[in-house]
Amino acid sequence: MIPPAFAYARPTGVEEAVRLLAGAGEDAKVLAGGQSLLPLLRLRLAFPELVVDVGRIPGLRGVREEGGTLVIGALTTHHAVVADPLVRRHAGLLAAATATVADPAVRHRGTLGGSLAHADPAGDLPAVALALDAELVAVGPDGRRTVPAREFFVDYLQTALRPDELLVEVRVPKTDEADGWGFHYEKFSRVAQAWAMVGVAALVRRDDGHIAQARIGLTNMGTTPLRATATEEALAGVGAAGPAGVDGVARAAQSAAEGTRPAAEPAVSAAYRAHLARTLTRRAVLAAARMG
Amino acid sequence: MTRISVTVDGTTYEDEVEPRLLLVHYLRDRLGLTGTPIGCDTSNCGACTVDLDGATAKSCSVLAVQADGSEVTTVQGLAANGEWHPLQKAFHEQHALQCGYCTPGMLMAARDLLRENPGPSADEVRHALEGNLCRCTGYQNIVRAVLAASGAAGPAAAEPSPQEVAP
């Protein structure tokens, strides 16, 4: 279908973009890669008066290191994230999960920042950002501010970003395999390229034969991405090898759906989603701890 | 209206377009390049896949204004000097199409794959084409054609593995 009419602006810098957003208030939408916004426009689910195309603002693409942190420009495409050697070395979970987003053509255009700012709970990357304890940096009329991922996702398609703020970078603490970290993103969908029915992002740090720390993000188990907190707590101290360890992981995974409120759809009941969360969490943690 | 300049299949066009105009509508309705079909309204099917500045994009999910200053290759730009592209030849020889509706997108996606990975396995071909739907259920021959075009496909490589033919 044909999108509704809108005015279009292509700012050349972050300040200009923020000025345009501030002038239009709630009636503006930011266009980055467009892989979420354009379908919404085509299906007439969004009616912005102004579309601010930030796609050509320089300096918002690419990955760099800052000590123990990776700094990823918000406009970095999924394709670039998957291929980036720094991401692969220091944030393997992000590279692995991003490789499962949609399909190659969408990954060429879609961006990390756009995916997080769109905040679809069925999207893969919000739960990954939660598990990674990422921080999101936004620029508004009053300057920059940093929002932890835990406070960023507010409700269905809603984030802590104000209408006049632009997400400019994503800061990810390094989780190197050399430091004992293992990761896995377990995504369940019925057909290739589909959204996750449920997804589990698992990040596990092993120390001296035990799971020292586990961080688990859940995709599509509520109106926002969620952490499986009860499972994370139950995993601490569980053996990272052998039948006893595998049993311990299985027991901890039983609480993966605690505190979640998954949506019921005709083909997927809430109870089935909860079942998936428990099963996928067990698989994801075993894979992340290199136990299965 | 916004002024754009886009190079499509080697020809540069200057046009005034509405910002809401999709690239696929620009190609088809404005330039008459109807080789790129529209298959769905959800970004799922991949029929409208084109090459945009050296990487595939679904042209239903790109605004024409976003392509300003860019270089677009459509399926109509694949043949050179009256010679089919090796992928086109392979699709023809391996019976990789029935109705042909998905074929332009399949060709563009396969071309993208072979550029990054000149000798893919059957599994890699399938993953690379996951954003392109064929409703004649012709995937088997499409995979075979891409392998044949890659030059890596001897008779053994072109045969599906048992896992692939399992229901």
Automatic annotation (TrEMBL), chain A:
Gene Ontology MF, one:
FAD binding
- Which Gene3D superfamilies does this one have? 3.30.465.10, CO dehydrogenase flavoprotein, C-terminal domain (3.30.390.50), Uridine Diphospho-n-acetylenolpyruvylglucosamine Reductase, domain 2 (3.30.43.10)
* Pfam families reported in the protein's UniProt record: CO_deh_flav_C, FAD_binding_5
- Every copy of the FAD-binding PCMH-type domain together lies at 1-177
Q: Which SUPFAM superfamilies match?
A: CO dehydrogenase flavoprotein C-terminal domain-like, FAD-binding/transporter-associated domain-like
Keywords assigned = FAD, Flavoprotein, Oxidoreductase
Which chain regions cross the lipid bilayer?
A: none
Q: Does the keyword Flavoprotein apply?
A: yes
UniProt xrefs under PROSITE patterns:
FAD_PCMH
- At the top level of its lineage, which domain of life is listed? Bacteria
What PANTHER family does the database record attribute to this sequence? XANTHINE DEHYDROGENASE SUBUNIT C-RELATED
Entry protein name: Xanthine dehydrogenase family protein subunit M
Q: What is the lineage of its organism?
A: Bacteria, Bacillati, Actinomycetota, Actinomycetes, Kitasatosporales
UniProtKB/TrEMBL annotation, chain B:
State the source organism's domain of life: Bacteria
Which pathway does it serve?
Alkaloid degradation; nicotine degradation
Q: Which Pfam families match?
A: Fer2 (PF00111), Fer2_2 (PF01799)
Keywords from UniProt, A to Z, are: 2Fe-2S, Iron, Iron-sulfur, Metal-binding, Oxidoreductase
Q: Which InterPro entries does the record associate with it?
A: 2Fe-2S-bd (IPR002888), 2Fe-2S-bd_dom_sf (IPR036884), 2Fe-2S_ferredoxin-like_sf (IPR036010), 2Fe-2S_ferredoxin-type (IPR001041), Beta-grasp_dom_sf (IPR012675), Diverse_Oxidoreductases (IPR051452)
Start and end residues of each 2Fe-2S ferredoxin-type domain:
2-78
Gene3D superfamilies per record = 3.10.20.30, [2Fe-2S]-binding domain
What SUPFAM superfamilies does the annotation carry?
2Fe-2S ferredoxin-like, CO dehydrogenase ISP C-domain like
What GO molecular functions are on record for this protein? 2 iron, 2 sulfur cluster binding; metal ion binding; oxidoreductase activity
**What PANTHER family would the database entry show?**
OXIDOREDUCTASE WITH IRON-SULFUR SUBUNIT (PTHR44379)
List the protein's name.
(2Fe-2S)-binding protein
The organism named in the record is Streptomyces apricus
